[in-house]
Amino acid sequence: MNLKGQTKLPIPAPRQVDPEVLAHEIVERLTYRIGKNAAAAKPHDWLHAVILAIRDRVIDAWIISTQKTYEEEGRRVYYLSLEFLIGRLMRDAASNMEMLDDMQAALASLGVDIDIIAALEPDAALGNGGLGRLAACFMESMATVDVPAYGYGIRYVNGMFRQEISDGWQVELPENWLAHGNPWEFERREASYEIGFGGRVDPAEGEDAGPHQMRWRPAERVIATPYDTPIAGWRGKRVNTLRLWEAQPIDPILLDKFNAGDHLGALAESNRAESLTRVLYPADSSAAGQELRLRQEYFFSSASLQDIVRRHIQYFGSILTLPDKAAIQLNDTHPAVAVAELMRILLDDHGVDFAEAWDITRRTFSYTNHTLLPEALESWPVPLFERLLPRHMQIVYAINSKLLGEARKSGQFTDSAIGAISLIDEGGDRRVRMGNLAFAGSHSVNGVSALHTDLMKVTVFADLHKLYPTRINNKTNGVTFRRWLMQCNPGLTGLIREAIGDRFLDDPEALRDLDAFADDSGFQEKFVAVKRANKAALSDLLRKRVNARIDPAALFDIQIKRIHEYKRQLLNIVEAVSLYDQIRSHPEKDWVPRVKLFGGKAASSYHNAKLIIKLAGDVARAVNHDPAVQGLLKLQFVPNYNVSMAEVMIPAADLSEQISTAGMEASGTGNMKFAVNGALTIGTLDGANVEMRDHVGEDNIVIFGLTAQEVNDRRAQGYVPREVIGQSRELGQALDAIASGVFSPDDPDRYKGLVQGIYDHDWFMVAADFDSYSAAQRQVDALWLDQPLWAKKAIHNVARMGWFSSDRTIREYAADIWKITP
Predict the structure, then answer these.
(1) Of 64, 223, 319, 374, which shows the fewest CB atoms inside 10 Å?
(2) 739-754, pLDDT tens digit by residue?
(3) For the CA atoms of 201, 202, 208, 212, what is the dihedral angle to 10 degrees?
(4) Active-site residues: which are they?
(5) Is residue 11 a part of any domain in this protein?
(6) Which cofactor does it need (predicted)?
(7) Which sign, positive or negative, has the C-alpha torsion 125, 127, 129, 133?
């Protein structure tokens, strides 16, 4: 049915949000939705009732937003991402709907502490790190700046994993966040789709069949069922939709097999389907793991595109106008197979000829690249791709023929350059290059920081950039300050409002007015008091969770991010070992008390990353219990780092560690969250650190180490790390202590291979940057001893971070890529 002429239904008047009305509604929902009276209700019952009361108000705005979009028939954004790390939603939604204070008062009148029940809400385990958190910030910002949008992803039952530390080692356990349901979501059975795998491809039959039209007959089918979560923008201006797909079998149980006694066989189809949405990033070190990952990516990409096309035709009639009404953004290469899937839908389901289908596809898609690591640009073995997606393999070959024909016709490429452009990597095992497919199938390809975008043009996409020189553009990442300042740091938010008023709540760049207070001793005193309270809150939390006792008066030095060698947690730990030696050797010096906190998950198959976590724990055990250190240095690895933990750790940080090897971090967003919460940054000129330096000022950030160009030059010139180590006494001693088993007496050889890797090749420049990093840390120590100067620099950081709002980023996407005027 075409809905363009659908009758507009009346919308209920907005509900009141005063405490008395809210208290009544909460008790009503407790009684009639949950089946409890107030006397019998447990904290989780109160949480559920509160969410339902908030949700009703979000739904009112949600319906208005959806109806407005269809009436105006404007262009809509569809954001495809394998991760959405949205975190807890109760406070976020209440704050954005401008009812948090009233809700707190309503609960207080009922004898309920909002902080206690809010802590019970599980973190939605839908992501791992920066990629997923960026997608969540973007969803909130799109609603805030009035961009109509759907986010599309997977409804993981268990998500990444829950990280526990056992004897210092990471242990992966299921993160069963959906165990007790999710009151924020709505199942939409009417929008389910069949997703196929395998089978054969036959020519289309009939007089109307086009020359490129085929019939794919999958051997296996599953059902993709959507669950919608409303995402409210600031002040409830717009509510957009996050649609997550769950995989279900067509036949949940094969009764003939079950009745014959083959109980496992009867459930095989069900288990196979459900495995698609059970775990985020299944380990891909095995062939089975690789197949499951590709199945996941096609499953959600196909379901999303079928949904987008169905909605478009329902409202606008013709598939040919799709680029005028739909802007599909690919968040990294995970949904890149969507390019081939849209071509399949256009060619086979709608009979569009190849040239027009390719034009529609390229005008519809845009692609965000998040990595310069060639191994992180996904590729799939051709036999696997062809077996699972035989029709898509044909389409990839056809696109490749067109692409390489263009390259040859231009006359500007050698055979090797044409090989680099190809969608098929012919070196070794033939593989389908998903990054090249996303690039070729999009009208826009953007990096996420100025440096990253410049490097894309000369590294991973150098030849494609030469072929399409206007396609790459930059959109520096940002974060939503509603969550990463206003919600997670109410003390600092209140202090800022007291100083400069409320304009920054709607316009983050108004934070610049705070610059005038950087030299104000009275404001500095209040600023430091807020930071101290945040540090005390983190100290209390760590004491309860991991029995760590840390002094809030110490310098809190925090590195929280995915554990990866390029992010260089290892450099941080090695410098801590060196500092440990210096403190013991020179007790007469005026050492700054320092607490080093680490958090992050290692991919389940990433051995060295797991070893780095173990090393952090081993070094902590030795340092924290050595009486010679006198408590001047402590280390702590914080297990199961997630959004909720970040919301406590980031406001408590004095020093933010952003120390990746230059040229390897695309942007970073943790660096932005720390700075706007009043932490100084120690970092390399990598990712968005470069732009942060430009905005906060060189005097208010601590930069060290090689630049991206210097890293490339060192590698090209034959970098010999052993020589560098030999010239640095402190580095050599620290590495020898680690390698010889000083911190692992139970297994003296545990870290020998890890250290040997630094001596032999040191791809991530740990040795090359060590002396510079160590000197920068001593610069930090000296600055810490001058507390008024430290406070001044921290205030400047807060004041000058407004440009790094995700609202600004989304406005740039809307204007330059999606061609939408909010």
Answers:
(1) 374
(2) 999 999 999 999 999 9
(3) 50
(4) 370, 561-562, 567, 669, 673
(5) yes
(6) pyridoxal 5'-phosphate
(7) negative
